[in-house]
Design brief:
The protein is mainly α. It folds into two domains: 126 residues, no CATH class; 96 residues, no CATH class. It contains twelve helices and no strands.
Length: 222
């Protein structure tokens, strides 16, 4: 009975992660499917590009919240003793279920985003110190390169370094998961990596300046 109950909580985490914030807001307020515009991705970066800063930040905040809340569903399960291996492992399973929901959302034909914001919410809930450092690395890299994809991958690669070598994490499930994050980000950004190598990746000027944002809007509507 406990197994069935825990599986039900995992399904709940997936359904939570499946909430397609950018797709629904795009359709409700703009009458468009964001997956047909810009980078054709249902993530917060494309939401900012196509729907504007206000809606994009709502998308970003909620996508992060999905990962954080999914981890918090641990309180609905039998793994209620904090700081134990099973507790942390099941937290990770809940977070992964939410990420899969974000990438493959059941509500909108299993075509979602890349899961970076939801992943951030997951690791922020479980391991905040290295997560915040990697967030700083992301911001610095973005300012220097103006590539969101490259910044995400570099921050993702920095995460296991922080977890293993700086904070010397001993919980094996967290160590393994930190390594999986680096691989996962590389996998979900494969097309971005190919465009980077061909020097065809779009710079996120619209994120960093009003002038860049206007240029991007004009380019999208041309």
């Amino acid at each position: 009975m406990a197994i069935v109950y825990n599986v039900a909580v995992l399904i709940l985490a997936y359904l939570l992660g499946s909430i397609p914030t950018s797709v629904w807001l795009g359709k409700w307020f703009f009458g468009i499917d964001i997956r047909k515009h810009g980078s054709k991705n249902a993530g917060s970066t494309n939401a900012i590009r196509i729907l504007g800063w206000k809606v994009g930040l709502v998308v970003l905040a909620f996508d992060i919240f999905k990962g954080w809340l999914a981890v918090s569903l641990i309180h609905l399960t039998q793994f209620y003793i904090p700081e134990t291996g099973k507790y942390i492992t099941f937290q990770l399973m809940l977070g992964v279920a939410a990420i899969l929901g974000h990438i493959f959302p059941v509500y909108v034909g299993f075509r979602g985003g890349k899961g970076v914001a939801t992943l951030f919410g997951l690791v922020l809930a479980i391991n905040p110190e290295p997560t915040l450092i990697c967030a700083g690395i992301f911001v610095i890299t973005l300012i220097i390169t103006k590539y969101v994809s490259l910044s995400s991958m570099i921050a993702g690669f920095a995460f296991p370094v922080m977890v293993i070598f700086v904070f010397k994490e001993t919980t094996m499930s967290l160590v393994i998961f930190s390594l999986i994050i680096a691989v996962l980000l590389l996998f979900t950004h494969q097309k971005n990596l190919e465009r980077l190598l061909r020097h065809e990746e779009r710079k996120a000027n619209f994120l960093l300046s009003k002038r860049g944002k206007e240029r991007e809007r004009l380019r999208m509507t041309a």
